[in-house]
Amino acid sequence: MTPAVANMSAAPKIDASVSPCRELVLSRARMYADIRAFFHERGVLEVETPVFSLAGNTDPAIDSVVADFSSPFENEASLRYAHTSPEFAMKRLLAAGSGAIYQICKVFRKEECGRLHRPEFSMLEWYRPGMSYHALMDELAELLAWLMPAGRADTERISYADLFQRELKLDVLSAGVAELKDCAHENGLEVVGFDDDYDNWASLLLANLIEPGLGVDNPVFVYDYPSSQAALAQIRHEDNIAERFELYINGVEIANGYQELTDAQIYLERFENDNKKRKLSGLAEIKVDHWLIKDILSGFPDSSGVALGLDRLLMVMLNAVDIQEVLHFHVDDI
Amino acid sequence: MAKYNTSEFKSGLKIMQDGDPCTIIENEFVKPGKGQAFNRVKLKNLKTGRIVERTFKSGESVEGADVMETELQYLYTDGEFWNFMDEQTFEQIAADKTAVGDAYKWLKEQDVVTVTLWNDVPIAVTPPNFVTLTVTETDPGLKGDTASGGGKPATLQTGAVVRVPLFVEIGELLKIDTRSGEYVSRAKD
Known about the structure:
The complex is a heterodimer.
Chain A: H1 2-8, H2 20-41, E1 45-46, E2 52-53, E3 66-68, E4 79-82, H3 87-95, E5 101-108, E6 120-129, H4 133-147, E7 156-159, H5 160-168, H6 177-186, E8 190-192, H7 198-210, E9 220-226, E10 235-236, E11 241-249, E12 252-259, H8 264-280, H9 290-297, E13 303-309, H10 310-317
Parallel strand pairs in A: 1-5, 7-9
Antiparallel strand pairs in A: 2-4, 3-4, 5-6, 6-13, 9-11, 10-11, 11-12, 12-13
Helix pairs in contact in A: 3-9, 6-7, 8-9
Chain B: E1 3-5, E2 14-17, E3 20-30, E4 38-45, E5 51-57, E6 61-63, E7 67-77, E8 81-85, E9 92-96, H1 97-100, E10 112-118, E11 121-126, E12 130-138, E13 152-156, E14 161-164, E15 173-177, E16 182-187
Antiparallel strand pairs in B: 1-6, 2-3, 3-4, 4-5, 7-8, 7-10, 8-9, 10-11, 12-13, 12-15, 13-14, 15-16
């Protein structure tokens, strides 16, 4: 190698402006280095967990990629789910006493490509034992300020109910499907093929009539969702809302956080309920993660956790409109 | 006619909506954090030209529309129908007032235009982006005035009235942008 160095000593440093590839490599590398520095300073430790597992995500709205792990000597196929987020494995670490942890990894979802979607994408997920979901929103706001020092430091916070009231004059928590449909109609939203399901219609209104303007000036946290959209967040029964939040910037959902469930029995109920819904919609049922249930049962700390789409965050930082602008390869070209 | 799943949606695809043939202008797949995935689609109704935005549940199927765009030569009109001819087969086809719409203003005999056929019936006529037409009527031209603003109306051989510069005279050939209906320049032939 040494002789080559002599020849290259005069080689100029690569100017980022001459190569869009190099520019993008630098932007992503810088973002990851900054994220790791942020958590290092706070004593949140980086972890790695397996991508493939025998049990999977039961959420009916999410479809897992399945890999065939069988060896030539086995008769039966040995199928594993590629994780849709590292949530379950990270929660098992929390139950085992890991303390505050974060992970940067690729996650996989069987879905079409879109302006904001790819079947594999990069995720930052972190968990904070002893922290409330509101305190976690503070920390996420601090991360944004850390990554984007030039402005965008001020974040806003609005509850799901107040947001619908402000934008659509609709009392979304007490509305029925008929009212949601009326609201869509009044606002000129023409819809084809959706079932009469509260959560579908609420999410259609949010995605089509509210989201495009969310977080255009400042990043916006929307919090306290209808309890029917709890996923794996705690439900506050006196208000009948789920303690979860989402972060929006430039009309794009960037992150999704929960006050985490701590009760093993409720985890099991939610998984089984998901599978019931799957069966009703003709979707394959997913193997429930009984290892997770068992570990939660052994003791799980009060925690909050959040997952953040790194490709979308990079889009914000680079003013990109299409996710392909922050990726080196297209899904159909590799 | 074939059915198309939302995963096959792309711009240019012709589908049926509300009994009318439509073309997809834009299609975006959206998967909200909660709830079902959908396709946000911008459609142009090929009969009315109206553009609507519609949200389809992903996985839905819709009927395709048998729509074809053909290049035909404009022959003549009898006031009720406009007649076109396929230059290869010499087959003639007549389009009614609704199909021709505002395009009648730019139809010059022997010009080749795009005729959109739905189930072999003309539903829209699109003139070329630029046409050359003769001025049949306008106020006398002002000699030497080639730059000043203002302008005046001029009637063209097809009956269309466009705003032209003051120097334009009867009998001159003008190049017109049919998309905006505006004068572009004088033409040589």
